[in-house]
Amino acid sequence: MLTVLLVDDEPLVRAGLRAVLEAQPDIEVVGEAADGAAVIPLVRQLRPDVVAMDVRMPLMDGIEATRTVLRTVPDPPKIIVVTTFENDEYVYGALRAGADGFLLKRARPAEIVHAVRLVAEGDSLLFPAAVRQLAAAYGEADGSAEGRAALERAALTEREGDVLRLVARGLSNAEIAARLVVGTETVKSHVSSVLAKLGARDRTQAVIAAYESGFVSPGG
Q1: Which UniProt keywords apply (predicted)?
Q2: CB of 195 within 8 A of CB of 206?
């Protein structure tokens, strides 16, 4: 059973998400919160697999709540930030803080379920084109000095660089394996190495690092 914690200051949004997710036989909503400030104790108590968290809340927003969860909770859950507007600087801030993806409040039920499952599985990037658009809008064109230094320290091999570029385009492990004509296990090994070298906890964070360093351009 895939467990989810809902965090949003609008009761109707939480009720809608709960109805959509609990209609699935393999998903259970284990708790709700109305603000990011309540997330830490609930995550520690309930140990959800995924947190669906509003990006804008009155006391603690989704950016700070994401940062706090990842900094203070051992083996933290996956985090999807939920937003009204796709091209929102808050969303990019949440991704930079460590969120695993984002979801629009107007998304169709099937898209909501798919997003939760995809983020939980962790072997594909959620909405890669939208992440590229956010990086183009709010990142530095050639990457930041800090990002370039971090990539240089990572010292990726040529093949690892190839894998990172394909991950940034949203390809799954199986699709990358087909593109590079190697086995899926080999791709998994390369992805794990890329994440370790970049200090990234998942594919989304690796892709953000690639954009922040200028290694991958948002328009590429």
Answers
A1: DNA-binding, Phosphoprotein, Transcription, Transcription regulation
A2: yes
**Superfamily classification of domain 2-126:** Response regulator (3.40.50.2300)
Cα–Cα distance, 196 to 13 (Å, whole number)? 36
CA distance 100 to 172: 15
List Cα–Cα distances, 133 to 7, 89, 116, 120, 130, in angstroms: 25, 11, 21, 23, 5
Just give the CATH number of 142-213: 1.10.10.10
Rg of the chain on CA atoms, in Å: 17
The segment(s) of the chain belonging to CATH 1.10.10.10 are: 142-213
| Prediction pTM value | 0.86
Distance from C-alpha of 184 to C-alpha of 128, rounded to nearest angstrom: 21
Is the per-residue pLDDT at 64 higher than 90?
yes
2-56 residue pLDDT tens: 999 999 999 999 999 999 999 999 999 999 999 999 999 999 999 999 999 998 8
Q: pLDDT tens digits for 143-184?
A: 778 888 989 999 999 999 999 999 998 899 999 999 999 999
